[in-house]
Amino acid sequence: MHTLRPALFATLITSLVAPSAHAWDYEGHRIVNTAALAALPADFPAFVREPAAAERIAFLAGEPDRWRNMTDLPLKHCASPDHYFDYEQIASAGLDVKTMPDLRYVFMSQFAAGRAAHLAEFQVIDPLKNADHTAEWPGFAPWVITESYAKLKSGFSYLKVYQEIGTPAEIANAQANIIYIMGVMGHFVGDCSQPLHLSNHHNGWVGENPNGYTTWSGFHAWIDGGFANKSGIKVDDLLPRVTPVKPMVMVANPGGRDPMFAAVVDYITAQHAFVEPLYQLEKSGALKAEEATTSTVGKKFIEDRLLTGSQELAAIWFTAWKEAGPDEYLRTQLEKRRDAATPPPAAPPTP
Length: 351
Ligand SMILES: [Zn+2]
Known about the structure:
Layout: H1 6-9, H2 13-17, H3 26-38, H4 51-60, H5 63-68, H6 73-79, H7 88-92, H8 104-117, H9 141-165, H10 168-191, H11 219-231, H12 235-238, H13 259-272, H14 275-284, H15 289-292, H16 297-323, H17 328-341
Helix pairs in contact: 3-4, 3-10, 3-16, 4-10, 9-10, 9-13, 9-16, 9-17, 10-16
This protein binds zinc ion.
C-alpha cells in the first residue's frame, strides 16, 4: 500500500487527475482474450471456439477502448472509470478493500462521503481537466467485471432454455450475446492484469520516492504496448503455458459480499502487488527499449501478467457457465408460447 502525503498532491495534479488512457494496447488485449479461450476446458460450449466466434471475442477485447476515443462526455463519464482501480484511494477515503461494498452505487455513496471527510488525502481537482467528472472516483474495474459476470451468467441461463424449447434464431441470438459479453468483459479483466491500472502510480511514480523510481509520464504507455511490441510478445508464444481452468468456488464469504466480487477483489489485490516490482524492474534497466530484444527478464514479467489475466478471465467465463441455471421465467413463457401454437385436438364428429 502506498500512501501519499497530502502536501505532495498539489504538485501531482496533472498525473493524478488524468487517469491513464489505456491498459494494454489492442494487441495485448487480444492476447488476453485469445489465450483465455485456450484456457477453457473441453466441456465449455464449443460454439465460442468456432473461428468466427474466436475472432470476434479477440476483436471485442478492444471495444471499451474504442468507446474512449469518442468525445461524448456522457459516455466518457460513465465508461472511462471502468478501466482502472486506484487501489490506494480506498484507504485514503477511510474504506477497506476487504470490506468495500459489492454494489456499485452503495460503494459510490460511501466513497464520496469518505472522500469528502478526508479531502486532504486527495489531490485538488482541476475543473479544466475534468470535464467528464471522472477524477472524483477511484475507478470501478472490480464492479464492471462482477456485473459482466452476472450478465454472462444470464446469457447462459437463457441459452440453456432456448436450446430446449426455442427457435434456431433465438439460439443464435443468445450465442451472439454471450460472445459479445465474453469479449467486452475480457477487456476489463485484461486491464487489471496491468499493474499500472491498479495504482495512483499509473503514469510514473508519484509522491514520496525514496527508491528513486521513474517519474516518466510515458511509462504507462510504454508498458501498455511499446515494450511488448519491441520485445515481440506474441500469443503463440504464450499458448503452451496456458492451462485449463477450474470453476471458481462461489460460496458466501464472511462479509456477505457477492462471491464473484470477492474473488475479483482478490485478483486485483494480487495484481496490485506487482506495481512496485514493475518499477523495480524499470529501475534495473530490464524494461528499456535496448533490453527488450536481448533480455528475457522484462519480457517474461509482461508475459506473466498477460497470462495471469487470461487465466483469470477463463476462470470467470467458465464459472458463469457452470453457475448458470436455466432461466425458469423464460421457460414458463416459452411453454405458454408453445402451447398456444399447438392446435387443440380435433373435436369428435357430431353424430
Ligand atoms: Zn482499458
